[in-house]
């Protein structure tokens, strides 16, 4: 079979690899129908993620058909159409029992990281019973791929950790795919205002079409604009969806008294914490790696039409053109790219 292989910093390409097999009783092998590229994959290519060894097939998001299952798999059978979770969960270790499978002792984020991932014709999924979800029929599969990672990430690390409440004001710093997914999930909780902040005016236009009540172009007067919109109070929830010092700083500057800064961004360097300004402001700061525990609920919400994740996808590429898909996604602003779907069928 073919897979997209990380060969080392800045070096990757499609290679011929042996088709994965069931190794442990709980494994399933899934034939991919759709995959996608994540910002995390770009970090890996830059050499920012040392756990990814050269030779690894990338990808932690996807949807496909179960090809074979080990004797320990009870919930899935060959032929089942499934969504692959970016988080592999054993369901029995201490972390899983705390509801934190992101830190599962024998799982967590392993796909396209410490084991071969989903940018390939086939993938082996450990702990299949608790790491796959049945794909509902009659729902756009391009949308369902967003259940693999960005929708639960936005929901858990952003909306839920940020305690978005009815009537509240929310600021989302960063209108990339995850920031826009946070915009979709935050609306489930009926905030009064959702302010999207980004440098890219095209993404802000998309945000308006997805329900943002206000947009702010990132720049020297961004804080003032947010303060004007919130009548000087700041936002009750600041969702940091980029992962660089400037956006974390901005989140600290716009947070209201009693507010919650929910960090979603993947940070590669240190940031300054302005406790000299925040110590008496009754705020909370949360961090989280997605646990994907809200995925079953999100699937129902997509099925019911309460969330339409197809609005987060902008491009489709055939798997044979995956290297071109990477170039398009890497130059996202120039190509007006949000999520890029890879089609195998
Ligand atoms: Zn991802
Ligand atoms: Zn576990």
Tag the structure with descriptive keywords.
Rossmann fold; alpha/beta; 345 residues; Quinone Oxidoreductase, Chain A, domain 1; six-stranded parallel sheet; seven-stranded mixed sheet; single chain
Report on this structure.
Belongs to the zinc-containing alcohol dehydrogenase family. Pfam families: ADH_N (PF08240), ADH_zinc_N (PF00107). Helix content is 26%, strand content 25%. It is α/β, with parallel strands linked by helices. The chain folds into 2 domains: 2-149 and 291-343, Quinone Oxidoreductase, Chain A, domain 1, CATH 3.90.180; 152-286, Rossmann fold. Strands 3, 5, 6, 7, 8, 15 and 16 form a 7-stranded mixed sheet that branches. A 6-stranded parallel sheet has the order 11-10-9-12-13-14, sandwiched between helices. Helix 4 packs across helix 5 (177-186). One zinc ion binds next to helix 2.
Produce a short descriptive summary.
The protein has 345 residues and is of the alpha/beta class. It is 26% helix and 25% strand. It binds zinc ion (2 copies).
Quote the average pLDDT.
Answer: 97
Strand content: 25-35%
> How far from one another are the termini?
14 Å
Range of helix content: 25-40%
Cα-atom radius of gyration: 20 Å
Quaternary organisation:
single chain
Major sheet summary line: 7 strands, mixed
The CATH topology assignment of the largest domain is Quinone Oxidoreductase, Chain A, domain 1
Task: Enumerate the distinct ligands.
Answer: zinc ion
| Text of the CATH class of the largest domain | Alpha Beta
Q: How would the global form be characterised? A: globular
- Regions with pLDDT < 50 over 5+ consecutive residues? none
What structural category do the secondary elements indicate? alpha/beta
Q: What's the CATH architecture name of the largest domain? A: Alpha-Beta Complex
Q: What is the H/E string?
A: EEEHEEEHEEHHEHEHEHEHEHEHEHHE
Continuous helix count: 12
Query: What's the structural domain tally?
Result: 2
Q: Total strand count, please? A: 16
Please identify which CATH superfamily of the largest domain we are dealing with: Medium-chain alcohol dehydrogenases, catalytic domain
Family: Belongs to the zinc-containing alcohol dehydrogenase family.
Cofactor: Zn(2+)
GO molecular function, one term: oxidoreductase activity
Protein name: Alcohol dehydrogenase GroES domain protein
């Amino acid at each position: 079979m073919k897979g997209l292989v990380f060969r080392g910093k800045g070096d990757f390409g499609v290679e011929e690899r042996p088709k994965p097999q069931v190794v442990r009783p709980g494994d399933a092998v899934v034939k991919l129908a759709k995959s996608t590229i994540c910002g995390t994959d770009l970090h890996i290519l830059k050499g920012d993620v040392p756990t990814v060894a050269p030779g690894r097939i990338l990808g932690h998001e996807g949807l496909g058909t179960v090809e074979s299952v080990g004797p320990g798999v009870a919930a899935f059978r060959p032929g089942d159409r499934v969504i692959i979770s970016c988080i592999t969960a054993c369901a029995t270790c201490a972390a899983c029992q705390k509801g934190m499978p992101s830190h599962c002792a024998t799982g967590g984020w392993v796909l396209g990281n410490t084991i071969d991932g989903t940018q390939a014709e086939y993938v082996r999924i450990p702990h299949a019973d608790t790491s796959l979800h049945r794909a509902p029929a009659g729902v756009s599969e391009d949308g369902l791929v967003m259940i693999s990672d960005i929708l639960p990430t936005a929901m858990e690390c952003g909306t839920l950790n940020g305690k978005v409440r009815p009537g509240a004001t929310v600021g989302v710093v960063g209108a990339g795919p995850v920031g826009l997914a946070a915009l979709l999930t935050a609306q489930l909780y009926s905030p009064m205002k959702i302010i999207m902040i980004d440098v890219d005016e095209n993404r802000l236009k998309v945000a308006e079409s997805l329900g943002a009540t206000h947009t702010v172009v990132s720049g020297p007067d961004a804080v003032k604009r947010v303060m004007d919109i919130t009548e000087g109070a700041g936002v009750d929830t600041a969702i940091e969806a980029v992962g660089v010092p400037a956006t974390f700083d901005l989140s600290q500057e716009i947070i209201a008294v009693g507010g919650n800064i929910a960090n979603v961004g993947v940070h590669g360097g240190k940031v300054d914490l302005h406790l000299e300004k925040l110590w008496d402001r009754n705020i909370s700061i949360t961090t989280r790696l997605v646990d994907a525990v809200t995925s079953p609920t999100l699937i129902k919400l997509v099925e019911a039409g309460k969330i339409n994740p197809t609005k987060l996808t902008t491009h489709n590429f055939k798997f044979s053109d995956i290297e071109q898909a990477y170039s398009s996604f890497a130059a996202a602003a120039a190509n007006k790219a949000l999520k890029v779907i890879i089609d195998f069928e």
